[in-house]
Amino acid sequence: LSLPQIEVFKQGLNQKLQEGQEKLHQMWLDWSRKSSKERGDESSEEPEEMESLALLMACSITQQLQGTCHKVVSAIQGLPSSLQDKAKQSLSAIEELHASFSAASSFQDLSSSVLTQGQKQLAVIQGCMEELLDYLQNNTPLSWLVGPFCPGKKEV
């Protein structure tokens, strides 16, 4: 990875997180508007549908983050162990959060502590990725620039 590629990755990560937050916020606004306009006329299924969509979106976002974290963990072999440990902790946190969302059939199935911890874990994951990208901008491993150095095989 070159410095421009690192910056593009960092912007992409931040954009994906922001897009996910914006989608969830928009869904919440849409549901709030509908429920306030149609208080007496609204069927009981509509809020459940919105909740179901929000839960599916949360599962999808955490699954995408899980895949990204897997790639990051495998790509940073050889970097300082403190960074590797933080990336592995991030992966573990997102796996737990994804498992919680996947197992739930509604938000009532999730305890408030899961939602609160999930929000904190996402902030920690974002901080970890930013720290990793800042490190790479200042200390790009030589093998990433020119490839791994392997002794050539001698033919007899």
From TrEMBL:
Recorded name of the encoding gene:
Plin3_2
Respond yes or no to whether keyword Translocase is given for this record.
no
In the record, the note on similarity to other proteins reads: Belongs to the perilipin family.
Name of this chain's protein: PLIN3 protein
Q: Which UniProt keywords apply?
A: Lipid droplet
Please give the biological process terms from Gene Ontology that the record holds. lipid storage; positive regulation of triglyceride storage
Q: Which GO terms describe its cellular component?
A: cytosol; lipid droplet
Q: Which Gene3D superfamilies match?
A: Flagellar protein FliS
Stored PANTHER family:
PERILIPIN, PERILIPIN-RELATED
Q: Where in the cell is it found?
A: Lipid droplet
Q: Does the keyword Repressor apply?
A: no
- Predominant location category: other
